[in-house]
Specification:
The chain has nine helices and seven strands, in the order αβαβαββαβααβαααβ. By secondary structure, the chain is of the alpha/beta class. It has a domain of 180 residues: Rossmann fold (3-Layer(aba) Sandwich). It has a seven-stranded mixed β-sheet with strand order 3-2-1-4-5-7-6, sandwiched between helices.
Length: 286
């Protein structure tokens, strides 16, 4: 018998059990919470919310922030990574967040919750593992576990625009790899294509009172969020390299050279970048 059995096939573009990915997600959660300036859409009446679910919660930053802000609300986070989920549980215990719980669960499969379990469901940046065909199934599952009148909020992003030639080339490689892997809505692989589809996906799943909010975030050198962005991108561009090589959009020599060049260009004083995010919320019929 082999001592190291092969890893289970996954749709994640990076290794979800990597320690580097755990650290990256912890930093990214803080970065996005500050960039968006809000944890949830302001138009939602939180007096009607008693139970919240966060899908692909990562290290649990959003869950713990919500649990702290609303101590009378039960907040549950699910994630496919056992390591990340255990970290989130430990963090909740050490900070005394008794209203925050975490479970290992695959969002690509039926969710292990009874009907009408939650009043609000959050999912942020899950494009890193979702297949186009999986979105309708997940949104139907969320319909099932939402209580009448409950809300779902999806927040996704498109690759940003920069003045770094190396980073731009790595970005195009990533979108091409996602296209070849069948994990993109793009017709040609030159972008991810999720943002224009979010509203239609929510609408087709039967949600009502759909609300959309867009964010353009400046992560350029000299801005208050630049350092967090730099650390996030350096880690991500390292972690995604096996995915790029798997789908043959580059070579080991080329991607290693681009990675080194990208780090230098992102550290320049005149580095500029803007990233685009969109939140789409829908309500289950009363």
């Amino acid at each position: 018998m082999p001592t190291n059995p092969p890893k289970k096939e996954t749709t994640y573009v990076v290794d979800s059990e990597s320690g580097m990915e755990l650290n990256r997600l912890m930093s990214q959660e803080r970065l996005l919470n500050e960039a968006f300036g809000e944890l949830f859409p302001a138009h939602i009446d939180m007096t009607r919310v008693h139970d919240i679910l966060d899908i692909a919660c990562g290290p649990g930053g959003w869950v713990l922030d919500m649990a702290f802000k609303y101590p009378k609300i039960n907040v549950t986070g699910i994630d496919i990574s056992k390591q990340v989920t255990e970290y989130a549980r430990t963090h909740a215990f050490t900070t005394g967040m008794n209203n925050a719980t975490f479970r290992v669960m695959d969002a690509m499969k039926p969710l292990d919750f009874p009907d009408n379990s939650f009043d609000f469901i959050n999912a942020r940046l899950i494009l890193g593992f979702m297949l186009p065909s999986a979105w309708p199934k997940l949104l139907q599952e969320c319909q099932r576990i939402l209580r009448p009148g409950g809300f779902i909020c999806l927040t996704e992003c498109e690759t940003g625009q920069t003045n770094s030639p190396a980073f731009e080339k790595l970005t195009r490689m990533a979108t091409q790899a996602m296209f070849r892997a069948g994990q993109s809505f793009s017709p040609d692989g030159y972008h991810i294509g999720i943002l224009p589809m979010l509203g239609k996906l929510v609408q087709d799943a039967g949600y009502q009172n759909i609300f959309t909010k867009a964010y353009a975030v400046d992560f350029s050198a000299g801005t208050e969020r630049y350092e967090g962005f730099y650390q996030d991108m350096v880690a991500l561009c390292h972690l995604i390299q096996p995915f790029l090589l798997k789908w043959e959009v580059t070579t080991p020599e080329e991607v290693a050279e681009l990675y080194q060049q990208m780090q230098v260009e992102l550290m320049l004083a005149d580095f500029r970048t803007v990233w685009f995010y969109m939140a789409v919320c829908g309500q289950k019929a009363e």
